[in-house]
Task: structure prediction
Amino acid sequence: MEDTREKRSVDYSKIENFHVIRHEDINGTGRLYGGRLLSWIDETAATCAQRHTSLEITTASIDNLTFKQGVYLNEIVVLVAKVTYVGKTSIEVRVDSYVEDKEGFRHPINRAYLTYVAITREGTPVPIPYGLKVEKENEKMEWETALLRKKNRIERSRAGF
Ligand SMILES: CC(C)(COP(=O)(O)OP(=O)(O)OC[C@H]1O[C@@H](n2cnc3c(N)ncnc32)[C@H](O)[C@@H]1OP(=O)(O)O)[C@@H](O)C(=O)NCCC(=O)NCCS
Result:
């Protein structure tokens, strides 16, 4: 079915955020807490989803949290969030996290897909008024794979996990 909603581009809500690793962010082995990175990922993605929808949203699910390498004191973590898919009431955001070295090169440490659902004050899902303008080849690919991820999530949820 054709999406007749007004559309917003991926760039409209794209967010880039950074954090310098402080003492309070590191655990006993001198590395960044995984939970700290997760909260930064959720915060960045939620801001992106809120910007696209202009609505209140809640986190429905988070896919894939593989930590590729450790992050240490005084290093800079960069998070880049962009919308990949907009359904009726749900929106998917991809967040890529990197460690940026002193030459400005970015080394990937994590990639996550988060789904948010637009809700009323009472917590009931509401339709998102803006579709997604899918223009570039990589945006088309993200959209197609988001449909597969959505299907997998529904199957997982039916199977009880
Ligand atoms: C997310 C939530 C609002 C969905 O409510 P629901 O009544 O199950 O929603 P529905 O079955 O009507 O589905 C609504 C949309 O959410 C999507 N959805 C529901 N559960 C989902 C999940 N676990 N993962 C991803 N998407 C999900 C559906 O695919 C649907 O998307 P669409 O409208 O774009 O097709 C509800 O489960 C909830 O409030 N969960 C708690 C959220 C929360 O507190 N988050 C903070 C964590 S501390």
About this structure: The pocket of coenzyme A is lined by residues 58-61, 87-90, 115, 117, 119, 123, 125, 153, 157 (CB under 6 Å). The domain at 6-158 is CATH 3.10.129.10 (Thiol Ester Dehydrase; Chain A).
